[in-house]
């Protein structure tokens, strides 16, 4: 096969960008199936189940909504309302972050001659190159890849600053929805921790009160489920915080075994504060709200000050996730 030159377009380089137009023989961007819908449905079922157990077995008894005034405990009610507002706020932020991460497009390569096969190859447009020194390209989308861009075989598209594909939200984590995914982890962890800690009091009281065995079991189920999920989320959140502070994505962390680099640090490490703004956005007072995504276009990334960058060279065979 003759490779196209800079002045000669590829013979099959028709419009194949995954988010615009595709040939009739191209598969859809994302195929909905039971296997794809099951993880997010399981996640939402788990969240609603824990919330329901906490609300009906812990909050309602504290709120005493149907208790006569003569037997009404005002201190217990104030305690219950505090738990109610904190739990509802964390749950609302969790759900908003979930739907924003799931429904926001992670970012795709725009149409243009700069990224299309067979067009002018500006040597300064990207820093990452293949082992041979050529620009990285996608054999599926027939485009050149920007820095930190990878092809997702599930979404069938090249994703800007791809972190990974998350089946739990049925979407890729990329440049435009990384913040919402991060907030989803944080609020899920906080919600599980808050529910697990506050429900302990109700469990201890159930040991001294007359209560159906089924209700005690459901209280223990609420505590154990939220504790297990919270513990797993702490580990997961700590891993992603470490990646963020080092200026890495999950794929870049995994590729350290496959890339020949001059050092162990990320070439995109801008220092802790700028690494955080690259994920959470430029305004610190909006960091923990599911709004205000990071600035930029996801195609080019600033260089660290006072440090020369050696472009990483990928091995002859790119990893499977590229």
What would a concise description of this structure say?
The protein has helices spanning 34-63, 74-103, 178-206, 213-245, 250-254, 272-280, and strands at 129-130, 137-138, 143-144, 150-152, 157-159, 164-166, 171-173, 259-260, 313-314. The protein has 322 residues and is mainly alpha-helical. It has a three-stranded mixed sheet, with no helix packed on it.
Write the layout of secondary structure elements.
Layout: H1 34-63, H2 74-103, E1 129-130, E2 137-138, E3 143-144, E4 150-152, E5 157-159, E6 164-166, E7 171-173, H3 178-206, H4 213-245, H5 250-254, E8 259-260, H6 272-280, E9 313-314
Parallel strand pairs: 1-9
Antiparallel strand pairs: 2-3, 4-5, 6-7, 8-9
Report the structural category.
mainly alpha
What is the N-to-C order of secondary-structure elements (H for helix, E for strand)?
HHEEEEEEEHHHEHE
Q: Considering DSSP H and I runs of 4 or more, what fraction of the residues is helical?
A: 40-55%
Number of beta-strand segments: 9
Low-confidence stretches: 1-28, 314-322
Strand content: 5-15%
- Name the average pLDDT: 82
How many DSSP helices? Answer: 6
Largest pleated sheet: 3 strands, mixed
What gross morphology would you assign? Answer: elongated
Tell me the radius of gyration.
25 Å
Which strand order spans the largest sheet, edge to edge or round the barrel? 1-9-8
Query: CA-to-CA gap between the ends?
Result: 23 Å
